Amino acid sequence: MKNVEVYVKELGLDYIDLVLMHFPATFPFMTSLCNKDAMQCRRETLKALSELRASGLIRNAGVSNFAMKHLKDLEGIGAPIANNQIQFTPFELEHVMETVAYCAEHNITMTAYSPLGGIMDQDKAMADEVLNQIAAKYDKRVSHIMLRWATQRCFAVIPGTGNLDHMRENLSIFGFELSDDDMQTINELKYRAKGFVHTDVCKSE
Ligand SMILES: NC(=O)c1ccc[n+]([C@@H]2O[C@H](COP(=O)([O-])OP(=O)(O)OC[C@H]3O[C@@H](n4cnc5c(N)ncnc54)[C@H](OP(=O)(O)O)[C@@H]3O)[C@@H](O)[C@H]2O)c1
């Protein structure tokens, strides 16, 4: 709670729109220090963020890297979760789709981080044959197709770049639309997760 007060002050703002709990797991030394397990820490952190929301210091509380099981742990504490920021590309593990469905069902908006594959997988994603075929069909680049696909799956996307041309390109994805058939083709790429690097958040207790 105190940290958020510092962030607001340092940013020179009156409030922050959205604050996320970064990861469902805690460091083992922290859980032993406070004698609480990771689930208790998650629930207490969300409650604290919810109090900040009630106080007006933040407008929304959210989470990041939460799998469905972590979200379920937060049910019943009366603290709304505005957003779940997760790694999301067409190459995710199957359980990610369960999390996506859970979020949609519970009105939790979703943000895709590393939507171009991030540092580990970008080259592999850009080389994918099917994505390249679809990009050629729309006269676009694979990066456009990946970002457009995620937005049509109702995700906000946050591609990382310090390159102005890439920023412009990434903003241009709102000028075209992928057909239902092409969306479906890309949805099925998830079965090709093999070879990609995943933060398997399900392993976090
Ligand atoms: N919540 C979390 O746990 C978490 C974890 C990881 C990342 N994130 C966040 O996610 C955001 C982005 O993730 P990320 O940077 O890991 O992965 P990313 O957006 O998938 O990939 C970034 C890479 O894509 C390149 N790129 C961007 N636009 C491009 C374009 N139009 N054409 C070709 N290359 C392009 C960038 O290079 P150039 O710089 O050369 O454009 C950079 O190398 C960041 O804000 C990061 O903080 C959150």
From TrEMBL:
One of its GO terms (molecular function) is oxidoreductase activity, acting on the CH-OH group of donors, NAD or NADP as acceptor. Keywords: NADP, Oxidoreductase. Residues 1-189 form the NADP-dependent oxidoreductase domain. Coiled coil: none annotated. Belongs to the aldo/keto reductase family. This is NADP-dependent oxidoreductase domain-containing protein.
